[in-house]
Amino acid sequence: MVETAPSAMAPEIGESPAVAARVIRSRPSIAAIAQRLNVEAAPLAVLCGRGSSGHAGVFLRYLIETRLHLAVSASAPSVVTAFRKPVTLRNALFIVISQSGASPHLVAATRSARDSGARTVAIVNLVPSPVADAAEFIIPVEAGTDQSVAATKTMIASMAAGAGLIAELANDKALRSALDRLPGRLDRAPALDWSKLSADLKKASAIFVASRGLGLGVAYESALKLAEVLRLPSLAYSAAELQHGPRAALSSRTPVIMMRLADETAAVIDAVTAELRESGIAVHLCGGPDSSLPWPGDDHPATDVITMLVPFYRLIERLAREWGFDPDRPPQLRKVTWTF
Q: Which of 8, 99, 255, 338 is the most exposed place for a label (fewest CB within 10 A)?
């Protein structure tokens, strides 16, 4: 098909290294927030976000539970907005993630959490904004305005900001060091050509994306972008869950994109990948020594999974134009979701 005109999505993906670098340079201000949060007194952490921001929250869940040893719950804003019931969150760590900073349900959930005694942190692109105003502490990601409906650079910036906060709360020197290397990794990531996915995506009846642990949020994000930008039915699962009920739906027409990180989850990813390939399923693996998709080699799991987004986003944007779609304006969608 003939490509459409150049998109806003492509240059926004290209801004990711600079945006991540700005977030990482804000480490002193993030460290100052971390010192005031008193997570030792927190009974749990609650993460609040929708769409891509919610997927960044899934990534943070695994960082919080593995580094801070706090149980994590996903916020259900409808409890506050539809059912109009307050939730007791005294001393809890409440993190809201929002690119637009304008969604009323996120504002209401954050205000309610703060009123109930939670320590509220907003990881937000736009400051000032209603979400930022509702929180006690603000970590601005300063990615600039998104012209494309599909969030890319703001997703990467939100993940980097969240990882930076957890690194300070946990005094995780290895994660700090990996974040320092992240902009350079992102800068080299556009050279990773994932076009070998193209043929399988074009003929697919559905796409499955799988990972585990720190990679699960990016699996969700990748499936969202496949549906949002390429209009392909797409589902994301933990690689462990993929071997249960969803396994029955896999066939030669349902390729699997597998994201492997060099951590404790790698063995399961390798085993599932081998089993699916033996069954005739097309599996595209990113990460590890046997990566079938171009990959520069493993670094730190928390930053590798952020890096994986760049070649994936670039492929999605290019295929959308090749297939005659506008990657910036998917049908029936808008930047701010006014759920209330």
A: 338
**Which residue ranges make up each domain of the chain?**
9-188, 193-295
8 Å CB contact between 37 and 121: yes
Phi then psi dihedrals of residue 251, to 5 deg: -155, -175
Q: Which of 171, 259, 266 is nearest to 217 (CA)?
A: 259
Q: What architecture (CATH level 2) is domain 193-295?
A: 3-Layer(aba) Sandwich (3.40)
Peptide bond into 128 cis (omega under 30): yes
Summarised one tens digit per residue, pLDDT across range 115-158 is: 999 999 999 998 999 999 999 999 999 898 778 888 999 999 99
- Residues with Cβ within 8 Å of 112's Cβ and at least 6 positions away in sequence, in order, are 80, 86, 87
Q: How distant is the alpha carbon of residue 117 from its chain centre?
A: 28
**For residue 27, how many other CB atoms are within 10 A of its CB?**
17
Determine contact, residues 22/142, Cβ cutoff 8 Å.
Answer: yes
Of 257, 290, 293, the closest CA to residue 276 belongs to: 257
- pTM tops 0.90, yes or no: yes
| CA atoms within 13 Å, Cβ hemisphere of 142 | 13
pLDDT, tens only, 212-227: 999 999 999 999 999 9
- Burial of 231-246, coded b for 16+ CB within 10 Å and e otherwise, reads ebebbbbbbeebbeeb
Q: Which H or E run includes 95?
A: strand 93-98
The answer to whether the 9-188 and 193-295 domains have the same CATH topology is yes
**Residue 46 in contact with residue 72, Cβ under 8 Å?**
yes
Alpha-carbon span 178 to 305, nearest angstrom: 12
Query: What is the CATH number that goes with domain 9-188?
Result: 3.40.50.10490
* Token pair in block for residue 115: 């009123």
